[in-house]
Write a structure and sequence with these properties.
This protein is 64% helix and 8% strand. It has 268 residues and is mainly alpha-helical. It has one domain (34-260). It has a three-stranded mixed β-sheet with strand order 3-5-4, with helices on both faces. The chain has a two-stranded antiparallel sheet with strand order 1-2. A hairpin with a 5-residue loop joins strand 1 (18-21) and strand 2 (27-30). Belongs to the peptidase M48 family.
Length: 268
């Protein structure tokens, strides 16, 4: 009976999912949570971050970030532009930034140590906006829910036949294997896709896509050692730079056309 209930639960979960296509044409499975729920979660996480982390009192920094965000977001479809985008600059020395469902963008003051100009800052922000636009949060939650549900079924089946101890071991061991062999590689795929989408957005907004390469060169210089690529949620920096550099050439005409049509950002 327990096995039947678990199978029924997984079937219900999968029935709520849907197959869609990302901005790059990649097949995605989403629907583990609704977009409304994701927006609520994003707003809650953003509010908690603002409550725990001091925000910059430098008005020029805040205006600089807001300017870049606005110009990147203006390249999204209209329904994505009007979701109430909000920005915050946090006093944190780590060179990091994030974007959350519901249009919440956070930038650490440490990002300015590696993003030396508006084009390099646009690289970071457009990448993070690319995650939201590509439904990566929904996709990741959906896959995690599905993976955990399948492990519970496998554990129950093993436990029914070999004992509860074996069943628990299957769930725990399977979780480790899924993390290393399924969830993390997917995250690297999402990171690479956000690079593609972000570089396109920044070029259409009038930011130089070639500066994405310079940004990541600065990142490498600042980061020092890092985890092996196969146990990381991000692509290898050298691999990333090669891919960004190869795309930049094809995006230069897009950037030049954007400038010619009046998209000339003067954020900082």
């Amino acid at each position: 009976m327990k096995r039947l209930l678990l199978v029924a639960a997984i079937t219900t979960l999968l029935a709520g999912c849907a197959t869609t296509t990302s901005p790059t044409g990649r097949r995605q499975v989403v629907g583990g949570v609704s977009e409304e729920q994701l927006a609520q979660l994003g707003a809650q996480a953003f509010a908690e971050t603002k409550a725990k982390t001091p925000q910059s009192t430098d008005a020029r920094q805040s205006a600089y970030v807001r300017c870049v965000v606005q110009r990147v977001v203006a390249q999204l479809p209209p329904d994505w532009q009007n979701i109430g985008w909000e920005t915050a600059v946090f006093v944190d020395n780590s060179p990091n930034a994030f974007a959350l469902p519901g249009g919440k963008v956070g930038v650490n003051t440490g990002i300015f140590t590696v993003a030396k100009n508006q084009d390099q800052l646009a690289t970071v922000i457009a990448h993070e906006v690319g995650h939201v636009y590509s439904h990566h949060h929904n996709e990741r939650i959906t896959k995690q829910m599905g993976t955990q549900g399948l492990l519970q079924v496998a554990g129950a089946l093993a436990g029914a036949r070999y004992g509860q101890g074996v069943g628990n071991a299957v769930v725990q061991g399977g979780g480790i294997a899924a993390q290393a062999g399924f969830l993390l590689p997917n995250s690297r795929e999402q990171e690479s896709e956000a690079d593609v989408v972000g570089q396109q957005l920044m070029a259409r907004a009038g930011f130089d896509p070639r500066q994405a390469v310079n940004l990541w060169q600065n990142m490498i210089a600042a980061s020092g050692g890092r985890s092996p690529e196969w146990l990381s949620t991000h692509p290898n920096p050298e691999t990333r730079i090669r891919e960004l550099n190869s795309r930049a050439a094809s995006l230069v005409p897009v950037f030049e056309q954007a400038r010619a049509s009046g998209h000339t950002p003067k954020c900082g």
